[in-house]
Amino acid sequence: MKPSLAELRVFVAVAESGHFTRAAERLGMSQSSLSAALGKLEKMLGTRLFDRHTRACKPTEAGTALLPAARRLVADWDQLMESAHDFAVFARGRIDVAAPNAQCALLLPPVIRTFRAAHPGVRVVLHDVPEHEVHALVRSGAADLGIATQTDARTDLVVTPLFTDQFVAVLPPGHPLAAKRSLEWSQLARESIIGYLPGNPVRRLLDDKLAERGIALDYAFEIALPWTTVGLAREGLGIAVVTMALRPLAQWHGLDVRAIGRPQLARTLVLLRAPGNSLSPVASAFRDLLAGVAPT
User: Fold this and answer.
1) How large is the greatest C-alpha to C-alpha distance in the chain, in angstroms?
2) CA atoms of 83 and 89, how far apart (whole Å)
3) Exposed (0-12), middle (13-18) or buried (19+): which is 186, by Cβ within 10 Å?
4) How far is the first Cα of the chain from the last one, in angstroms, to the nearest whole number?
5) Please, what is the angle between helix 201-211 and helix 131-140, to 10°?
6) 202 near 269, Cβ under 8 Å?
7) What distance lies between CA 26 and its chain's CA centroid?
């Protein structure tokens, strides 16, 4: 007969607590069961492991010599079980995320880097698509999670708000309005604007909110990709009206970014998932990480 892991745990617990009652409480077992397990271990080893006293116990010379090896065996087994669980949950996992171009380029890469550092065996598949395709990918199951702009339209998807993303103006250095710390929509209404395509949810939200206040922007260019929007603004072909998510891209190009107030408008980015099915552990871990991130 060979000692079992449970008996080695009892040996380690008694040695570390120095007391049978405290060791039994620590292991969640009765004191009689603990004493029986320890007695069985001593019988198998052929030596006494503890000198018993009325209120306490002390390892014998043999117990002291065997304790480090017993600790290693218990710790190694616990580590093996933890590693096996992590492997079963994460090592062969995959997460599919759908998001618009700007979020794929600027928001998600640092999130993916952090996630892969914690779960190197998981494959992250990124669907870089126009925003109107995000809902369809999540609905069909091709994407576990999606990122999109919150709208008033009804949806059958589960929607969780992530953060608000304010509108800002991007101007080339030297533009007269760049001298101001912040701008107003009435000022921008007199300028040539570079903006999103008419069917884009962000553009639709912006135009509707401004129309409520009797303001209409003069769009000189209506663009799908953020890189084109920033490139046109860099050449002085208009003022780009975008959301704060594109500020890093604008600053990389040496452009000035100004807040827009009176009124201050923003869109809300939301996380989408299909209803009915619970998320896999992999998708849940990615969702939790993403929920704690907001662009600065």
Assistant:
1) 94
2) 10
3) exposed
4) 62
5) 120
6) no
7) 35
Cα Rg of the chain (Å, integer): 31
pLDDT at 214 (0 to 100): 93
Q: Write the DSSP string, 254-274.
A: T-EEEEEESS--EEEEEEEE-
Within 172-233, strands assigned E span: 182-184, 192-196, 218-223
Phi–psi pair at 221, nearest 5 degrees? -140, 135
pLDDT above 80: residue 53: no
Distance, CA of 147 to CA of 59 (rounded, Å)? 60
Q: Which two tokens stand for residue 65?
A: 């010599």
Tell me the residue ranges of DSSP E strands in the chain: 50-52, 57-59, 94-99, 123-128, 145-149, 158-171, 182-184, 192-196, 218-223, 239-243, 256-261, 266-273
- Which residues, 6 or more positions from 25, have their beta carbon under 8 angstroms from its beta carbon? none
Q: CA-to-CA distance for 202 and 130, rounded, in angstroms?
A: 12
Write the DSSP symbol of residue 104: I
Could you tell me which residue, 191 or 165, shows the higher pLDDT?
191
The DSSP secondary structure of 234-249, one letter per residue, reads HTTS-EEEEEGGGHHH
User: Which of the given ranges, 33-47, 94-108, 151-165, 209-223, has the highest pLDDT on average?
Assistant: 209-223
Q: What angle do CA 123, 109, 155 make, to 5 degrees?
A: 80
pLDDT at site 294: 58
Report pLDDT for 54. 64
3-state helix, strand, coil in the chain (%, to 5): 50, 25, 30
pLDDT digit string (tens) for 127-145?
A: 999 888 999 999 988 898 9
Where is 99: in which H helix or E strand? strand 94-99
